[in-house]
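[User] Could I get a sequence and structure tokens?

[Assistant]
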Amino acid sequence: MKKFILKLIIVLAPILFFVVSVNYFGDAANLFSIGYEKKIADEIIKGNNVTNVYNYDERLLEKHLINNSTLCPDVLVIGSSRVMLIHSSDFQKQTFFNVGVSGASIEDLLAIYQMYEQKKCLPKKIILGLDPWTLNINNGQTRWMTLNQEYFILYTQLTNKNIVAKDERVDLKYFQLVSPSYFKGSFKKMILVSSKPIATNTKINNTFTKLVDGSITYDLEYRSASPDEIEKRAIGFISDDIYSIEKFDKLSPEIRFLLEKFIEHLRSNHIEISFFLAPYHPKVYSFIAKSDKYSKVIESENYFRDLGLKYEIEVIGSFNPNRLNMDGSYFYDGMHCNEKGIEKTLINEYK
């Protein structure tokens, strides 16, 4: 038996070594790449757009940008990927920066703002992207943990509850070294993709691009999809669990309390606030609206509108594209508007 185990170890050791090596050096999500996000931030701070950007820690990038840039923007956009196409061209004669991060939760909103407050670099206006999952305690979002220290500083200030931030990411990332799924992505990256960020003056490129104003543009292939392909993306979006709104059984009282405290804090610092509600693709919204399972999506919009009335805050857009007279031509997929859709939402054609 001992000989069998020894032989098994001898056979498996090289395979395990190969898997670990590919996962470490291929590094599909840049978990082990020191300085990847800083390289992107440095180019943006120099005044360049950056393309050829893959799987990076968006929160860490924003931290580098905020801490190292001398810009104190007049207008700041904070929210999820659904606000990341709001560009500086939409705000003429005002300095502008977009600090949207994918899947933003209430923790992200507080943490990103807190970094500006720590820097004593407060904007005059904040456009706050709010999504249905903002109020869903079961949204499954954990990426905010990159900024957990910043979040808990403001959380403590707003609630008078002292919580010590714990960084659990360091231990978790090493599990990816032996992950078969991580191996697949890492191997592909090593063979097919040069993931080195590339500075560029152009806004639209063959690969995903982070722009100098913090906003983004999608790669050419994604942007160039036909109407049929975009409709397929929308149908695919609702063919399984819908992003971050499963188990959405109530508007979390804890999150509502925290959001209102945050708004009051912004107002105390004389910051003008607008809420931005990005619409879903018509097919997605129709599916949501017809299902009792997702009734809290509609309730969440009503809550945000009531909150706007309470605090005299402008509410831009709607989760319902029909209220904005928007068909599928205004979208890239099931929950992301294209540039035309963002512009139409910004003019607030709410009916």
